[in-house]
Amino acid sequence: MDALSGVLESAKLKTVVYPKFSFTSSWGIEMEQDSRSQFWRLLKGTCYLRVPGEKAIKMNVGDFVCIPHGSKHLISDKSNTTCVPASQFGKAYHSGKPLFQGKDEETILMGGHFEFTPSVQHPFIKSLPKVIHIKTTKELNLWLEQAALFMNEEISSEKIGSKLILGRLVDILFVLIIRAYIEQVDIKAGFLMALKDNRINNSLKSIHESPEKKWALDQLASTAGMSRSLYCREFKRLVGETPLSYLTNWRILKSKEILSESKENISEIAGKVGYQSEEAFNRLFKSKVGETPASYRRKILS
To answer: Which of 136, 140, 172 minimizes the C-alpha distance to 63?
Structure first.
């Protein structure tokens, strides 16, 4: 399994797709700060998306904009339009009296959000930029375009199983957006650059696939085909922590996943993530999570 897939699998990515929104007069919506990663795609017309402190983005038909950290943002027909709070817009929409209906040119938006398990803290999530803008030009790859077309079809038709299909499509969409961003932007450092670097990516893949292995630095360096000193330097520069620190944190992440999904005893779980001593595993887990594995399991399953 590649490094990104491993991270997203452990992060338990959840997705929600909103209904398509149609506006036919001067309009603007203010989205408050949210813990979820929101995304928008323009299906018809033109619009602007503004994140405080960032340059306004003019969206053209087919463009995607993703707000990975759920930053407050405004989306509107013009870059200076006064926006109403999303709660006000939502209340009117659900009451059957949607706002921004008139005789002007129609604008249609598709949107939704991605959500990671709150307890998952990973360099990948932290390295995502404040805003990702994927233009509907050469940067928009075929798979991303096809996923968006399928989503549009399912939202419009509301056929049997559409909700489930949409959820799966948005999962795919998130990966495709990240892939397109990595290919489109000249990333200098951070976990996204680590995914782009074949050597470090190979090492991450090895760690993810075999957390139970008794890894030594020399062995990890060999997975990247690098000398020990160069490997340590490049790994920390890109990932933001040392290889051994990342390995420990990945083991803790995987152990939390197993604790919440299985009834295996603590000693078995310790072995699966590279610790032969249950006592040592308990001690490390508590130092990282703030409670013992048993206590964590009780809280999660209660």
So the answer is: 136
Ramachandran quadrant class, 77 (left: phi over 0; alpha: psi -120 to 50; beta: rest): alpha
d(CA 253, CA 196): 23
Spatial distance between the Cα atoms of 192 and 182, rounded to a whole number of angstroms: 7
Q: How far apart are CA 197 and CA 224, in angstroms?
A: 10
Options 3.30.460.10, 2.70.98.10, 3.90.1150.200, 1.10.10.60; CATH for 197-301 is 1.10.10.60
Cα 96 to chain centroid distance, Å, stands at: 32
Query: What is the per-residue pLDDT across 123-172, written as a single tens digit (0 to 9) for each?
Result: 888 888 899 998 876 545 677 777 777 777 777 666 777 777 777 777 78
- Domain spans in the chain, listed from the N-terminal domain onward: 3-184, 197-301
Are domains 3-184 and 197-301 of this chain identical in fold?
A: no
Collapsed DSSP state (helix, strand, coil) of residue 46: coil
pTM passes above 0.70: yes
- Per-residue pLDDT of 90-127, as tens digits, reads 898 888 888 888 777 889 998 888 887 766 778 888 88
Which of 175-179, 185-189, 265-269 is the most confident on average?
A: 265-269
So what's the architecture of 3-184 in CATH?
Sandwich (2.60)
Q: Please work out, in degrees rounded to the nearest 5, the angle formed at the alpha carbon of residue 123 by the alpha carbons of 120 and 125.
A: 65
